[in-house]
Specification:
alpha+beta, 395 residues, four-stranded antiparallel β-sheet, 40% helix, globular
């Protein structure tokens, strides 16, 4: 099969729409048909929702589907699956794992979460203490994970656990797919400053995971996890947004609609942040184009840094612009939402929720180290635990 071009992809999309008219086809059935036609993510392999086509041609498919009013797969609800689990499974999964997990993941039939961070291993993720002990053809997992988005909705989780405590902390880790419905998995809500509980604590007690759900070789989970983490930062910091989209949109709209709130100082700050938001948007576009050539690199860490800083500064400006109105907060009801809705809520929510942007997906301090060492080539910080077995480290 020759690599399809944009015209061929448009023809295939029109064939899909003719065979499965969006107006009369069940949403899930349409998404399954789209996946089977190779139009889900065109750069994925044949039979796995793609056509081995260049990633840049996805926009041709998306435009045709949007014009026809076709449903999407609700990417905000399944972002962890799309942005983190899927590329990791594609890179390290067996053929059986790819066939089993990628289609229901993309269609949205199965939600995913990420069991990485722990109470004592957040910024220093490789210091994790959750254990996975072999028992025949299974692994028995015990430990605690924290700050787990969507754990209350998820069927599956990507999980890293220590399988050899005699190895230094970056070695002796293995990577698994965990069934969140298995015995021994307990999910507890973590209520945040916003009043919601989109995050969770997850307790794992004697959870049995078949070895067939291990991703990558035993003991090489850190290498697999790095693929997940790099994709995570791209998905957070390099998300596709339109011009004057994202967090800058509501404050720009308020500025235009409420001239009585304007001051010279606020005007200068808004102009500066508008330009920075546009630069970040264009940089994100360039980063996604670079992905065509291979796996994401440390540049995603830089984008995630910019995303966190801009969100916090823009939301702070919006609260100041609104004055007393900015101090109001719409709803403190304890909810467990399906996704974070920055633009669909009020200014107070945006201000409070953006505080977490510099923590989730890698703290800004850790990402600054990554940029310094892997982008700028500066010397690494001294470490005295590099070759010390994990079991011998002070905790």
């Amino acid at each position: 099969m020759t690599t399809p071009d944009a015209a061929e992809l448009r023809r295939r999309t029109q064939d899909l729409l003719a065979a499965h008219p969006p107006a009369t086809t069940d949403r899930t059935d349409f998404l399954k048909a789209r996946f089977d036609a190779g139009l889900a993510w065109v750069h994925y392999p044949l039979g796995l929702g793609g056509l081995d086509a260049p990633r840049t041609l996805q926009s041709a498919v998306d435009a045709e589907l949007a014009a026809a009013g076709a449903p999407d797969n609700d990417p905000r609800r399944i972002g962890i699956g799309l942005g983190m689990a899927a590329p990791t499974i594609l890179g390290y999964g067996t053929d059986e794992q790819k066939q089993r997990f990628l289609r229901p993941l993309w269609v949205g039939e199965e939600v995913w979460c990420q069991l990485f961070s722990e109470p004592g291993a957040g910024s220093d993720l490789a210091a994790l203490g959750t254990r996975a002990v072999p028992d025949g053809e299974e692994w028995v997992v015990d430990g605690q994970k924290v700050w787990t988005s969507s754990a209350h909705l998820a069927r599956w989780a990507i999980l890293i656990a220590r399988t050899d405590p005699d190895q230094p902390k970056h070695r002796g880790i293995s990577y698994f797919i965990c069934d969140m419905t298995d015995p021994g998995v307990e999910v507890r809500p973590l209520r945040q400053i916003t009043g919601e509980a989109e995050f969770n604590e997850v307790f794992l007690t004697g959870v049995r995971i078949p070895d067939s759900r291990r991703l990558g070789p035993v003991g090489e989970g850190w290498k697999v996890a790095r693929t997940t983490l790099m994709n995570e930062r791209v998905s957070i910091g390099g998300a596709r947004v339109p011009r004057e989209g994202g967090m800058i949109a509501p404050v720009a709209r308020t500025w235009r609609e409420r001239p009585e709130l304007r001051t010279h100082d606020l005007h200068q700050r808004l102009l500066t942040l508008w330009v920075e938001a546009e630069v970040a948007r264009l940089t994100g576009t360039r980063l996604r184009q670079q992905l065509v050539a291979g796996q994401p690199g440390p540049e995603g860490s830089g984008m995630k840094l910019a995303f966190a800083r801009l969100n916090q500064e823009i939301s702070g400006l919006e609260v100041e612009l609104l004055g007393e109105e900015g101090l109001l907060y719409g709803d403190w009801t304890m909810r467990r939402p399906e996704f974070v809705d920055f633009t669909g809520r009020d200014a107070g929510y945006r201000y409070l929720r953006s505080r977490g942007n510099s923590i989730e997906g890698g703290t800004s301090e850790v990402l600054l180290n990554i940029v310094a060492e892997r982008v700028l080539g500066l010397p690494a910080e001294p470490r005295d635990d590099k070759d010390v077995p994990r079991k011998d480290l002070a905790r």
